[in-house]
Each structure stands twice: as structure tokens, then as C-alpha cells.
Amino acid sequence: MTNAKPTQVKQSNQNLLWERFQPVNGIGSAIYCFEQLPSTMTTAWEWVEQGASHGTTILALHQTAGRGRFRRNWYSNLGESLTASIIIETKASVAKMFSMIASLGVVTGIKNLTGLQPTIKWPNDVQWAGRKLCGILIESRINTNGESTVVVGIGLNLALNLSDYPEIADSTVSLSDLTDNPISSLDSLAKVLLGLDHHYRRATEG
User: Fold this and answer.
1) Secondary structure (3-state) at 152
2) Across residues 177-191, what is the average pLDDT?
3) Which pTM was predicted?
């Protein structure tokens, strides 16, 4: 599906992930982990064009050209962040709510992972004490059948070395700053997908 060489989640780790959640609406139904990608968002849209199914999730351990809103760069060195994109096929009415759904999903995921209760800065940031903890990027299109395809991009700071990024050091925080326990990309992804699935289910059933 892409020119990048995938390191798909090892079966043992994938089984462990599936023991932690059971997706109801297919979110996280297929997870692909890459050692490195330019951008999970770009790859996700390429996969959409090639028929990727609802719920497909693309995880990159290292992004070289990640992007946020307004095409801003998203910093992501190896082990520093959870950087993932999720493909959603849904009704147009639900697609309009995805900034809220994704933000609530991330907050729920972080709470279930760490016990912390971050806040939402509308429309796309999750914060702790006014400092950015996670950025969310929502891109969507309306299909010929009237349904929508949404790609949800998530960039959650796990353990940024802020001395490498002095320009954002005062406005950014990582989970490693807030908890004594190391948190992996797979652990955080499992909880975020659970939270996203929960709030997506509430939106579609409401």
C-alpha cells in the first residue's frame, strides 16, 4: 500500500493489544506499525485511495514530516510521541463532530492510562495546566455515496526531550513529565483507541 517498509505490530504485541479492548465500530480493527514514515496522515489518505477499511490505524514510531493544523510541523523523534492516524468511514452528520469525538477520546484514553484528567483547548489540542500534551488533526471528505471519510491524526507527547525543541519548551508537556511510569506507543495507542471507540459509539448511537 505504500513504498515505506512496514514493521507490522508483532503478533505477540498485537494479541496483547487486542486483549485490552474490543472495538465495536471497527476502530483499530487493523493496526500497522511502521518504524518510520514521513507522515501517518499522508499514508492514511494514500491507503484510503487503495481501499483501506474503516478503522484501519497507522502508527509510526518516528515521523520525518508530520503535520498539524495549518500545515505546521509536528515533531516526532523515535520514542518521543504517539503518532497515529485512524481511517473512519461514517455518516456526514457524524463526521462534523469528529473534533469533539477525537478530543474526548484522547482525554478518556489518557485518564484510563494514567489517572490524569487533561483539558481540551478547542478545537484540536489536549492540554495539561495550559501546556500542549496532544495535538489532533481532522481531515475529511464527502464521498459520492453521501457518506464521509475522516482521517484522525493524533500526536501525543510521551517523552519529548524539550532541550531539543527550545521554541516549544515553554508551551509543551509530555506524559513522562506527569507520571513516573514509562509509557509506550502501543500502550497509549490501545487506550486512545478505546476512548475514541467509546465516544464514536455514543455519537453514532445518540
Assistant:
1) strand
2) 90
3) 0.85
